[in-house]
UniProtKB/TrEMBL annotation:
Keywords from the UniProt entry: Hydrolase
Domain of life: Eukaryota
Full protein name: Uncharacterized protein
Family annotation (SUPFAM superfamilies): Six-hairpin glycosidases (SSF48208)
GO MF term set: hydrolase activity
GO annotation, biological process: carbohydrate metabolic process
Lineage: Eukaryota, Fungi, Dikarya, Basidiomycota, Agaricomycotina
């Protein structure tokens, strides 16, 4: 395990390599979101570690990039509220219903920071659909809550609105394994943002209360698992509600990675500060209010959170059973030895494990959620697995910074390069560095 300082310097070296290809790619709506998330998690770690990027000889400012990415998501926001979907035309060329929500946590972070510090304005684009960043992300939320296509699990049974599954797409009613990542962390971010004191957020419409949003974030994961999760823990990729059949029953590796990473991001959103002490005028970390979310010590959503947590552990264990001996990588379709050996799932699972280990070991707020601790054997083996997967992904990174042999853009069905592969390389490295930094800081090294 690296020392605290070497974890930061090692991360800087990797960011210098990985970020140029990431920031140079053409990006679809979800890729804009995952790029922003990689930079947001980088920014938050550097703020926590009090390690200015410029002091590390990194000639850039994460906050400037975050605003630029958020700004362009509003430049390309469709009239229906979906972010980052306008290319040439009215947005119909991007049929994602929940993909555009992927950038939501970044927007809520910027909204909180702007409301909290008049010296840090984030003006919206001129002639955009939305009047501010907060207006833009709230329009995205309104689309999800009111306009996104949805369907019941069983078309023959009466279903309450909270039991409807939100569709991944606008042109068909489908649930994808990817949906867990694109949708639920966004809803959790919207929920936690609403629990901030008024001075930390602009005027927010009262039509959605934080408890209801948090319940929907968790319920959507649970409902999706009912449709897509196999008895062995892996997830099929796509189920079509219009046809009432699987459009793609394959156990797509990266789809399972989206599930694991999406759930661990929900846990991180609940446990970590929305703004750090150095970003707030009263010099204190600003956390979400778990009581308002129904997740306090007697919260009614705790059993549902436990179900979602168990889904994460089941899926993670199932994926790790498919890790290829000698390479620490995975086949593109987990149980298909004829599919190509793919890089990105290893990055996504390493990220998930580092975040999970870090939360259990170093976050009192996470432990206050009442989730059971990991078995000691799992902790040891999973950390070894994460280290092996990280090294395997690093070995796939070339001198130009491209992570090779991920599911390649634009079709994601053959080995290549992709914005999401670059972003997950960054997020894996940040999760490793933050876990290492916490571990060594706790030991005084």
């Amino acid at each position: 395990m690296a020392s605290a300082n070497s974890a930061i310097s090692g991360l800087c070296e990797r960011l210098d390599l990985l970020l140029p290809p990431l920031l140079s790619t053409q990006r679809s709506s979800w890729e804009q979101g995952i790029c922003a998330q990689a930079l947001l998690e980088s920014h938050r770690f550097f703020v926590e570690a009090q390690a200015s990027p410029k002091a590390q000889n990194m000639p850039y400012d994460f906050a400037q990039w975050l605003y630029a990415l958020a700004h362009d998501s509003l430049v390309r926001q469709a009239p229906d509220g979906r972010l980052a979907v306008l290319l040439n035309g009215d947005g119909a060329s991007d049929a994602g219903a929940v993909d555009p929500a992927c950038i939501g946590e970044t927007l809520y972070y910027l909204c909180a920071r702007e409301a909290n510090d008049a010296a840090v304005p984030f003006p919206p684009p001129r002639a955009a659909v939305s009047d501010s960043l907060c207006d833009g992300v709230e329009k995205m939320l309104r689309y999800i809550m009111e306009s996104c296509p949805r369907a019941p699990l069983d078309s023959n049974e009466p279903t309450s609105p909270d039991q409807l599954l939100l569709s991944h797409r606008t042109d068909a009613v489908q649930i994808w394994s990817d949906t867990v990542y694109m949708l639920s962390p966004f809803l959790a971010s919207a929920a936690t943002f609403r629990t901030l004191p008024p001075s930390y957020r602009p005027d927010t419409p009262a039509s959605y209360d934080p408890h209801a949003l948090m319940e929907k974030a968790l319920r959507q994961v649970d409902l999706a698992a009912t449709v897509l999760e196999k008895a062995t823990g892996e997830w099929a990729h796509i189920y079509d509600f219009d046809q009432r059949e699987f459009k793609r029953a394959a156990l797509w590796g990266v789809g399972n990675g989206w599930v694991c990473a999406g759930i661990v991001r929900i846990l991180n959103i609940l446990a970590c500060p929305i703004l750090s002490a150095s970003e707030s005028p009263d010099q204190r970390d600003v956390y979400p209010d778990l009581d308002q979310l129904g997740l306090g010590s007697n919260g009614d959503l705790r059993p549902l959170l436990r179900q979602v947590y168990d889904i994460l552990l089941n899926t993670l264990r199932a994926c790790l059973r498919h890790k290829l001996p000698g390479t620490a990588l995975f086949h593109d379709v987990l149980d298909d030895p004829h599919s190509f050996v793919e890089t990105n799932l290893a990055q996504m699972l390493a990220y998930t494990i580092y975040r999970l280990l870090d939360l259990h070991a170093h976050s009192a707020r996470f432990r206050a959620l009442g989730l059971p601790p990991l078995f000691s054997d799992d902790q040891v083996v999973w950390e070894q697995d994460a280290d092996a997967m990280r090294e395997a992904a690093r070995a796939k990174t070339d001198r130009w910074g491209f992570v090779r042999d991920v599911c390649g853009s634009p079709t994601f069905d053959k080995p290549g390069t992709a914005a999401e592969g670059q972003a997950w390389g960054v997020m894996m490295e940040v999760a490793w560095a933050q876990y290492s930094w916490h571990k060594q800081s706790a030991s005084g090294k």
